Amino acid sequence: MTATKIKEKAGKALFASSAIICIVAVLAIFVFLIIKSAPAFQKIGVFDFIFGDKWSPNREDTYNSDMSGKYGIFTMIIGTVSATIGALLIGGTLGYFTSIFLVFYCPKGLKKPLNTVINLLAGIPSVVYGFFGIAFLLPTLSNIAPNNGSGLLATSIILGIMILPTVVSLSKTSLEAVPSTYYQGSLATGADHTKTVFRVMVPSASSGIMASLVLGIGRALGETMAVVMVAGNAPTYPYSLFNSFRVMTANIVMEMGYAGELQEGALVATGVVLLVFVLLVNLLFNLISNKMVRSAVSSKSNFKWFNSIRQKINDKVTQISYKINSSKIGEIGAKASGLLVSGVLILIVGFIFIKGMPTLVTTPHLLIGKFEFGSEKITILPALVCTLFAVILSLLFAVPIGVATAIFLNEYTSKSNFIVKMIRGAIDILAGVPSIVYGLFGMITFVKLFGGSSSIIAGSLTISIMLLPTIVRSTEESLKSVPMSLREASLALGAGKMRTIFKVVLPSSLPGILSAIILSIGRVVSESAPLLYTMGSVIKAVPTNIFDSGATLAVALYKLSGEGWYINEAYATAVVLIILVLGLNLIAETVGNKLRTGLKGENNVNKKKSKSTE
Amino acid sequence: MLIRKNRNPQNNELSFNGHISVSNASLWYEDFQALKNISIEIPENQITAFIGPSGCGKSTFLKCLNRMNDLVDNCRVEGSFKIGDVDIYGKIDVNELRKNVGMVFQKPNPFPMSVYDNIAYGPRTFGITKRQELDEIVESSLRQAAMWDDLKDRLFESALGLSGGQQQRLCIARALAVKPKIILMDEPTSALDPISTGKIEELCEELKKDTTIVIVTHNMQQASRISDKTGFFLLGELVEYDNTDNIFTSPNDERTERYITGRFG
Predict the structure, then answer these.
(1) Is B121–A188 a contact, with Cβ atoms under 8 angstroms apart?
(2) Interface contact B95-A204, CB threshold 8 A
């Protein structure tokens, strides 16, 4: 009796402490970033740092001596903001129309493949996007550009493609959530399909679509590697579509490797400014999603005069939009976007495969060769081994903690509890933190902890924090889908809570957890920004233990494409990377689908029945 | 006629009126036959009620009359459906048909817009954008639905803030705004309380002056209270169709009698 009791207590304590790790992680990120950046803020001055537009750091600058460099990041703030706006114009518009196409215009047979295409776009690593930018987009743009093509336009296009899946998937969900009775109601007044879609369905989902755009902004703000590869990175304003400029994330990646004392502080401070931006955007996202729930009930406002102005504007807009028949334009936009998006994936993957496959086939040395120092022959075998190490280690940390946190949240707590709110808030924040900020955090904590130089263990720890939100969220989803009656049945048989969780709940939610794990593997394989300075960036011999440093496949691709001498090898590396990541994504999707159809099996039968009797 | 601008001029020649005549209508959902050889004449400017147990095909038949069944996959319709002289399954603009044959659904389904925009939705679809004209249509539709006094100060509030009964009457007003000849009602009061139900029944009486109303109902008292003609559906067949008084006092078919006296269904 007492033994069971102790077991129950210990179990609960274990789950709770895992959950608390999430809070600690968030706190640690903030505390360390602030400790590291505070002296720099002090020395440079907050105002001069944010609004200064000269960046010329001096390696010799220390906190104790006189400052001789210039540390102002205003050019980069403007750079980040413009790149984000550009991405939103391209990716947001395209995503908006694509989601409408998917939900309302897509022929039935095409729906599934197109969905898969968009999910795959989400899975492609950002270095591959960057590499595609270097290898295809920049040379193409250079035909019309005064320079080599790098700059705001290229950055916006690449970022736009990258935020597209985010925008599409959330917009699609909210469009699908609009009740079909609206659709029928509109048809019954004589409106045709297109008018119904653009006058009723899309406006009804507008706050969800807004939220998806905001989420896209968050993604664009924090993106690092792809931007570094196509923006040019000179610390100036983006004066035109084609001049080299720098964003905040790029600033960190470019200089962190060789920064002096004050410079390092200033780079961490850049991370802090970036984090503030991202958190504000997340706050906006939460406000919009909350409003979504409330505005469904009533839209009353206290400001009468404001309302009347708004009404007048609305009126004019409606009048004009009906006059120019905007819904027809929308229909064309939707169809064009659907085509374009599928074209983009085929272009990216096809281009890289065509260029990379020959090298991969003709030089087996690349894949399985032995590393020789100073040799012309490149091998990515060490990178593959490093990637494998990173995957295993980070999952070893992240999966138990993530799953235990999800169990604690779903099985042990009520929704309104203060600590639960804290934990959920912490997970939301973790999910929003840009990957380069994780890299910074890992550098000033784990790397220091393991002797000051990058190592596989430090990199894996860094990335495992990054995996937590994904694992927690999707595990929780699948725990939620386990019917309450199963738990009750187990408890009614006299089983304890621990036994119920391990013997009944977890097995039923295994497919969900499994697909989260597979997705996490994909994430480790494709991330590069957080690993560059925590795990190592030099392609060298196969690592022998976890305290060695080494580049993962994604980091290796970044290095190879940056050096310019091994462009064929880079193509081949990109092919390997794409195959790995897309393969993992496909597996995860299949596992997820299996789960969903498994749960739906019974419903389908019922549906058929009810349909035939109506 | 308020609706002047029409995108499909050839359809102006279609002369819909309020008379429906259907002969030998059958309908299949995949292999399942939901309607079996139905023939019916529904007179103009009267209320016709369809009664019958759940799943008997009365709603399905109703949806055939404005081709809402087109939305269902693998649904096949045979037979002749005529409204006035128009063969509604022939080569016609289905939107023009639905404009003339309005529909009110089981659950109130106002769009998440203001009361005003809800009612102006239909007219705007057919090309009316002038504020003044729209104002007139909104007012007259709301007056017809007996809601003008309740709602004239709340025109620009969200329609979702109205009560269930008000929402349903708003949906009726929305249907009226495009001046339909026929209004189909699919159990319009099943989600409403008795008072709201009473108001909608009154409204139907009012509307039948210049509109044909076809109503599907589970409530036999309702059918006997408001309808002029009643049809009894069972297992996809139209068992009996006659004046309401005859159906409820001296039905010809034994099955009708058993149903209205509450012995099955």
Answers:
(1) no
(2) no
- Contact between A63 and A262 under an 8 Å Cβ cutoff? The reply is yes
Kindly give the residue spans of alpha helices, DSSP state H, lying in B101-193.
115-125, 131-144, 148-151, 164-176
Structure tokens at A195: 């008018």
| Top CATH class, A12-36+363-614 | mainly alpha
Which residue in A has a C-alpha nearest to residue B110's C-alpha?
A: A182
Residues of chain B contacting residue A181, judged by C-beta atoms under 8 Å apart = 105, 107, 109
- Determine, yes or no, domain membership for B6: no
Assess if residue B265 is contained within a domain: no
CATH superfamily of A77-251+280-292+326-357: MetI-like (1.10.3720.10)
CB contact under 8 A, B131 and A319: yes
Q: Does B28 touch chain A (CB under 8 A)?
A: no
Please indicate whether, in this complex, the C-beta atoms of A188 and B129 are within 8 angstroms of each other: no
Q: Do A296 and B174 touch (CB under 8 A)?
A: no
CA of A596 to nearest chain B CA: how many angstroms apart? 23
Q: Is B32 on the interface with A (CB under 8 A)?
A: yes
Domain spans, chain A: 12-36+363-614, 77-251+280-292+326-357
The domain in which residue B187 lies consists of 14-260
- As to burial, measured by CB atoms within 10 angstroms (0-12 exposed, 13-18 middle, 19+ buried), residue B143 is middle
Structure tokens at A257: 């490797």
Q: How do the pLDDT tens digits run along chain B, 265 residues long?
A: 344 344 444 444 567 788 899 999 999 988 899 999 999 999 999 999 999 888 888 899 999 998 888 888 888 899 999 988 888 888 888 888 888 899 998 888 898 888 998 999 888 888 888 888 899 999 999 988 888 888 888 888 888 889 888 999 899 999 989 889 999 999 888 888 888 888 889 889 988 888 999 999 988 889 999 999 999 999 999 999 999 999 999 898 889 988 888 766 5
Same CATH fold assignment for domains A12-36+363-614 and A77-251+280-292+326-357? yes
| Nearest-CB residue to A611 (from B29, B131, B177) | B29
Domain presence at residue B4: no
Residues 6+ apart with CB under 8 A from A304: none
Check: CB of residue A286 under 8 Å from CB of residue A86: no
